[in-house]
Every structure is written in structure tokens, then in C-alpha cells.
Specification:
- The protein has 227 residues and is mostly helical.
- Helix content is 67%, strand content 0%.
- It has 6 helices and no strands.
- It has helices spanning 27-47, 62-92, 95-99, 104-109, 113-137, 142-206.
- The longest helix has 65 residues, at 142-206.
Length: 227
Amino acid sequence: MPLSPSSPAPTENQPAASEDLAWRRHIPALAAAVAGIREASDAWDAVSDSFCDTDGWPVDEHGKVKRDAEAWRHVEVFLDHGPEVLAGVRATARSADYAEGPISEDLRWLRGIDATLEHAGQLQREWDQILVLMDASMPGSRQLYEGRAKEERNADGWHYADELAIRGPALVRAADHLVRRADAEQSVHTTRARAALARSASGLRGTMPASPPAPPAPGAPVPGRSR
């Protein structure tokens, strides 16, 4: 299967050294963010009927507002950590990983995550601009309007949270697999290097030249020479 147009060509020459995968430190945060979005969604699903009319339209926004706020908090985690992990995965994955293997499907799921992160990032940038405008035009009154503006931001961000709840696990699984593979390959490489070094040292010991003969004692006759 061809690579995604947005995916850089994987490096095939040598396995990535596990200590070079600096992005690995972000994986736990992404895994926790995925779990957090799902938890917020499940909590809303459990009570949504009580907040909606018979046609399914919300009549009390409290539960939905809480869901959106919780979910957006985890979207921000993805904005902080996701791009680096995504770039690391694409740089480390090989062509064969896209064609078959345990993460081939996960890598295909990542094709749409760029747009999700970009749109969520744009929403966050717009929010930062809104705060600046509030401070400039309504000094001292920001707290009166910030709450409602934040609710609107969170509501708009729920779509991206929902997308990340779907595609985020694929990113976490792919990243975790590539890190574990790099660790295993590095371990094999280290073991082989040590074995080669041990063989080299053993060979050197086995071919060391014999010690030169001891010089004759003073006054002793030299063989082949008459007195």
C-alpha cells in the first residue's frame, strides 16, 4: 500500500536507536488524554437522556457543558504532545509497516489526524486572540464574559475531541509498537556487538606470540662455536 501523501519516506537503512526516540516520553500523556475523552463521553451518554426531550434535543445544557469542558482539556494535551509523536511515528515506521504487520491499520487511521490537530489548533489560537481582545476592550470585566466564550469554544471543540478519541488510540498503539521494536533491536545490536568484541578479544589471546627464549647464562658455550 502506498504511503500517505503527508507521510515522509521511512528510513530503511538502519533501525532507529531507542535512545534517539525522544518523542517516546509523550506517549503516556496521549494515552491518558484518549482515556479522558472517552470517560467524558461515557459520562455524558450515561445521563444524556435525562437532559434531553423526547426528540433527543438537550433541555438542560449542564451535562453537555461539563462533557465539552472535560474533553477540551484532553484535546489541549493532544495539541501539546501529538504533533511530535506523530512526526516520530512517521519518521520511524518503515514501508513494510504500512503494507502489513501489527500497526498497518493504525498507520492508515493516522491519515486524517493531521487535519484534526490543525483545526483544533486553529480553534485554540482563535481562543487566545479572544482573550487578548477581552483584556484590551473590557479591562476588569473579562470574567463576566470569559465563561460563556469558553463554553462556546469547548462546544466547537467537541467534534475534534470525538475525532481524537477515534484516531488517537491508533497513534498511541503505533508509537508504542515502534518504541518497543526499537528497544528490542537495540538490545539485539548491543548483544551482538558484545559477542563480537568477546570473540575478538579471545582471538587476540589465542594468537599472541610465544615469549622469546631466555638469554644464555654468562660464560656458557655458544652452540656451534668452538673454543
